[in-house]
Amino acid sequence: MASMAPQAPSTHPVAFLARRAALALAAVAVLGTATAPAAFAEPAAAPPASPEKLPDGLYGTKDPQYDGVWRQSLALLAQDTVGVRPAASAVDWLVGQQCADGSFTAFRAEPKQPCDAKTMRDTNQTAAAVQALAALGGHGETVKKAVSWLKTVQNDDGGWSSMAGSASDANSTSVVIGALTAAGEKPESVTSKKGGKTPYDALLTFQLGCAVKEGERGAFTFQLKGAAPNADATAAAATGALGKGFVVAPAKKGADTPVKPLTCKDGKPAKSSDAASAADGGAAYLVAQLDRNGQHLLSAMPGQEKQPDVGNTADAVVALAAGSHGAAARKPLKWLEKNAAGWAKENGPAAYAQLVLAAHATGTDPRSFGGSDLVAALNATGPKPAGIASPAAEGTEDHKDGDSGVNVWWVVGVALAFGAGIGFLLSGRKKKNEL
């Protein structure tokens, strides 16, 4: 989707650590998730008991009940994005979390036991896993089954909710769009069985237009019920509307597109709205919020409205970069470089992953991020990586080869085996929720 540590589900799904809140996702329980979102939490429930021993290969040390698959997926994806080959045990753990029907839930303590009717299948967790495993390569069948399941729970309006059967929301719809793209699908071709609506048809319904006051125009709401501007949903949707997921390739040097606010004439949009212009409107809303708050977004959690939302700010950076708004993205990125280290340390792998992906989207070195090495810190939250490619290899598009299992890592491994006689160089180092 922002993100924090796992806790009981909130009434407002967290979609993007939807991102959003990659950690918020985790925190506000991916049962609402992730995109990552973040909104109005219920009174604190008793925290779930932590497992006596966390599974081998799992990233992080906190209870994975609400965000295990989410944080694992973001961690693996961020590592892959910057040239780190994750440990086999980490990838195997994620693959082993899949249910037979292709879906993922937040955490299965006993993956050998089949998923049943009580298993809380989650589109956000599933979409996050798809993005990670598609990027890593070699898991085509797992990805195919997950995408097939996502298609079976698409709502009539073309979108998705966190939990099948609930009303669509902007965060879940966006994270699934990212998964479809990562899996090689064309989101605009994935239509609902009833009505033939696309994910973009659904996503555009969440954007606030000329009927609201000027400062809210262009923002996205989380759900249509109780529609109100939501920065978390806006960051997710501004990325999803462009058909992009968690990983956004850096724009070419010097490329920068000014944001274009949603404008109205005689109470109607000045121009017809399509996905790209909707993304522009969302980006303009984010920029206005960032400028007003000192280049960070504010928390939507009750009692914390004046506190910075670090995870959502990171998501906003990715959204702005996705729209080629480089200059606008670099301003909040500099704020993150100065202020995000403590937050990431407290919240763990998904938080580090969000920052790594924000740095990557802007062409910034995540190994030198405000004096911190985000990559080393992320690696330290899980099993030791199997290998690390040279920085020059990062961002290449040809290092995966479907299910063959043959990729740049095999080549690196062979080269290192001959050169050092020791094989690979080892690193030292998201119950149904609605508004």
Automatic annotation (TrEMBL):
<keyword id="KW-0732">Signal</keyword>
<dbReference type="Pfam" id="PF00432">
    <property type="entry name" value="Prenyltrans"/>
</dbReference>
<keyword id="KW-0812">Transmembrane</keyword>
<protein>
    <submittedName>
        <fullName>Prenyltransferase/squalene oxidase repeat-containing protein</fullName>
    </submittedName>
</protein>
<dbReference type="InterPro" id="IPR001330">
    <property type="entry name" value="Prenyltrans"/>
</dbReference>
<keyword id="KW-0472">Membrane</keyword>
<feature type="signal peptide">
    <location>
        <begin position="1"/>
        <end position="41"/>
    </location>
</feature>
<dbReference type="InterPro" id="IPR006311">
    <property type="entry name" value="TAT_signal"/>
</dbReference>
<feature type="transmembrane region" description="Helical">
    <location>
        <begin position="408"/>
        <end position="426"/>
    </location>
</feature>
<dbReference type="InterPro" id="IPR008930">
    <property type="entry name" value="Terpenoid_cyclase/PrenylTrfase"/>
</dbReference>
<feature type="domain" description="Prenyltransferase alpha-alpha toroid">
    <location>
        <begin position="73"/>
        <end position="183"/>
    </location>
</feature>
<keyword id="KW-1133">Transmembrane helix</keyword>
<keyword id="KW-0677">Repeat</keyword>
